[in-house]
Each structure stands twice: as structure tokens, then as C-alpha cells.
Automatic annotation (TrEMBL):
Its EC number is 2.3.1.-. This is Aminoglycoside N(3)-acetyltransferase. The keyword Transcription does not apply. PANTHER family: AMINOGLYCOSIDE N3-ACETYLTRANSFERASE, SPBETA PROPHAGE-DERIVED AMINOGLYCOSIDE N(3')-ACETYLTRANSFERASE-LIKE PROTEIN YOKD. Belongs to the antibiotic N-acetyltransferase family. It comes from the Bacteria. It comes from Kitasatospora cathayae.
Length: 257
């Protein structure tokens, strides 16, 4: 089992620094046993970031959306009446209380529930942040910029944040969506989800991550600012958001030419 102190030392060796804005994407299963579990990892990260650092996590909630893949799988094979009953019982998004989806990982929920953490109000793609820049990161999150430049993800780019990929492959590097949205001809689709005041619908870019694995491999081959290390049983990387997104943008444009 890795102690919190040992974990903090390894994060610092990887390149996590005091005062940094750090977005963490983590697989605790890949990391292995840690003292204190998800809370212990947050303790270690906060120790290294210090009082001036800000820790950020994606706390999306696809379970409250009738247009999500999770919902489509849940209602497959149901009769129209059964599907309507399922929708009536779907959890309403409450930014103060709704847990992050289990698909986000236990660390995202540990950040969300940390005393002092703030969360953006998007009913589908919220973000939680802890630290002095938490308010700036989470304050504004328009429905139509769910993972775009006006979202907390966009502010991570503006703040030159780093992403700690803790046992998670670049195929899940969320910030690549910012590069996708710079490309011409981005299609819009309708999203529907339920919040405290009832159902809402909005049109926003139709995004997927099916090409992220190939894109991530190209970015890693070209990036100068990425550091990597083995922590516990996990392969980890510290990735600059701005460099990764700009490189990905260039690769996507060259692929279209």
C-alpha cells in the first residue's frame, strides 16, 4: 500500500508543483492500494499543490440525460410505457448534491465532496475544483459550451493547466475536445437532461472520443512538455493542456488537407 507521503513525493517527482492548476483523470484500480483510498490521493495532490494550487476534476452526470449512451442502453428493449416510466424516475441534477457519474471514477467524486470545492452548474458536463482559482474555473458554464472554450475545460486551457493522467490512457484525454471544436464543419445535436427545475433541451456540438487514441499517440510523439513515471502500478503522465490541444489541432487540420 502506498502512503500519502510517498504518493506526494512521487507526484512532485513527476512534475506537480505548488501553485499549479491541475486537472486529474485517474484510475485508482490501475494505481493500486493507497492509504486512504481516493481521499488519500486527493490529500497527496493537495499537499504538493499547496495553498496556491487548484485541483480540478470532471464530474459529468450522463445518468440524468435521455440522449446519453448510458440512457439508450438502459431503455433498450423497454416498451414505450416502460421507457416513459424510467425517464420519470431519472435523478434530477443538483450541482450541490448529485454525485459524479461512476464512469468518472472515484477520484472525481472525492474532489467534488471535498470541503470548499466548487462545481459548475452544467446539468450534463459539470466540473469540480478545489483551491483559489476554483471560482474562476467553475463560475460560468453555458449549456451550449458543454466541453468548449467557454466551459471550465476552456479555462484550463487559458490558465495553462496540467493534466495528470493517472493510470489513464490518452484515449480519454478530455481536453482533445477543444481541438475538435476548432475544426470546420462541427455538427450540432440536441441534448436533453433533467435538473431540479425539470427537463431542459439544448443544442451543442456533437462530440465523440473515438479518434483520441490515435491523436494521443501523435501528440505524445511530438510534445516537449510531457513527463511520465510509474506510480504504484499505474503508468502516469503529466500533460500541458495548451501544448496538447494545440498539437492536436494541427494534426487534425493536416489530416483534412
Amino acid at each position: 500500500m502506498i502512503s500519502t507521503a510517498a504518493l506526494a513525493e512521487r507526484f512532485a517527482r513527476l512534475g506537480v508543483r505548488p501553485g499549479m492548476v491541475l486537472h486529474v483523470q485517474a484510475s485508482l484500480r490501475a494505481l493500486g492500494p493507497v492509504e486512504g483510498g481516493a481521499g488519500g490521493v486527493v490529500d497527496a495532490l493537495c499537499e504538493v499543490l499547496g495553498a496556491d494550487g487548484t485541483l480540478v476534476a470532471y464530474t459529468a452526470t450522463p445518468e440524468n440525460s435521455s440522449t446519453s449512451r448510458i440512457h439508450q442502453e438502459a431503455v433498450a428493449g423497454l416498451s414505450p410505457a416502460e421507457a416513459e416510466d424510467y425517464r420519470a424516475r431519472m435523478p434530477r441534477f443538483d450541482p450541490a448534491a448529485t454525485p459524479a457519474s461512476p464512469t468518472m471514477g472515484a477520484l472525481s467524486e472525492a474532489v467534488r465532496t471535498r470541503p470548499g470545492a466548487l462545481r459548475s452548474g452544467h446539468p450534463q458536463t459539470s466540473w469540480a475544483a478545489l483551491g483559489p482559482l476554483a471560482g474562476e474555473i467553475t463560475a460560468r458554464h453555458p449549456l451550449t459550451s458543454h466541453l468548449g472554450p467557454e466551459s471550465p475545460l476552456g479555462r484550463l486551457y487559458e490558465l495553462d493547466a496540467r493534466v495528470l493522467m493517472l493510470g489513464v490512457e490518452m484515449a480519454r484525454f478530455t481536453a482533445f475536445h477543444l481541438a475538435d471544436l476548432r475544426q470546420p464543419g462541427v455538427r450540432l445535436r440536441e441534448y436533453r437532461c433533467v435538473a431540479l427545475d425539470g427537463w431542459t433541451a439544448f443544442r451543442a456540438p456533437d462530440l465523440d472520443d473515438l479518434h483520441f487514441a490515435e491523436l494521443g499517440a501523435r501528440v505524445l510523439g511530438a510534445a516537449a512538455g510531457v513527463s511520465s513515471a510509474r506510480i504504484g502500478t499505474a503508468d502516469c503522465r503529466l500533460v500541458p493542456v495548451r501544448e496538447a490541444v494545440d498539437l492536436a489541432d494541427g494534426f487534425l487540420r493536416s489530416g483534412r488537407s
